[in-house]
Amino acid sequence: MLKIEAVSKTFAKGSINERRALDNINLSLDKGEFVTIIGGNGAGKSTLLNCIAGVHEIDQGRIWLDNVDISFYPEYKRSRYIGRVFQDPMLGTAFDMTIEENLAMAYARGKPRGLRPGINKREIRLFRERLALLGLGLEDRMKQKVGLLSGGQRQALTLLMATITEPKLLLLDEHTAALDPSIAKKVLQLTREIVAEHQLCTIMVTHNMKAALEYGMRTIMMHEGRIILDLEGKEREAMTVERLIEQFENRSGVELDSDRLLLSQ
Length: 265
Prior knowledge:
Blueprint: E1 2-11, E2 19-29, E3 34-38, H1 45-53, E4 60-65, E5 68-69, H2 75-78, E6 82-85, H3 99-107, H4 121-134, H5 151-163, E7 169-173, H6 181-198, E8 201-205, H7 209-214, E9 218-223, E10 226-232, H8 233-237, H9 241-252, H10 259-263
Parallel strand pairs: 3-8, 3-9, 6-7, 7-8
Antiparallel strand pairs: 1-2, 1-4, 4-5, 9-10
Helix pairs in contact: 3-5, 5-6
């Protein structure tokens, strides 16, 4: 479903602030494959997601999505096929619009525009059914403005909005990092259920090493713009956080010094 071939990205090229954020990245994901990505600050995790989504233009390489070369598609064109949830619960929704209006915008993504009523009865039924699956009671608050929701409720809604049209690819950029641990666990469980139900090809960036091994079916570790570890199958099942830290240090040649990673064990 997704193929990344020899992709590199350098910021501030030719200046004293030049930084190579991605260094010859090669990665392939099948339909329904759920991959978690972990790494310290500056490892290139978010840059990789931004290059896939079209926020940043790549310097070299190719990106294919469902056998279509999207390497130089603009971001708005890629958004028809890519769902994304950000770290900040305030992003991804319009706070001054109602829950059903936000869902209607998401549901219209990629569809032709026309002169018709904003939200029809069939769509309202669909939104209510999908909201009920979240188990947060939002199906009874569809006329309420999103700005009145808690961070966890808003992030769960954003996740639903990102997947309501069943995108070809779902990108999750530390989407639980700003939430309380109990709420984060709930959103992660919802993520797992939604990805499994729709067999979505998914990349989840996280700073939590335990979650990186617990969720999805494959774990990738990045360092200085490179993939230094790719775990799946029995090797991943047998991996512990302690051994993952050891693997990082063996392959990178440096000690793991990211407080976010070490404190999230």
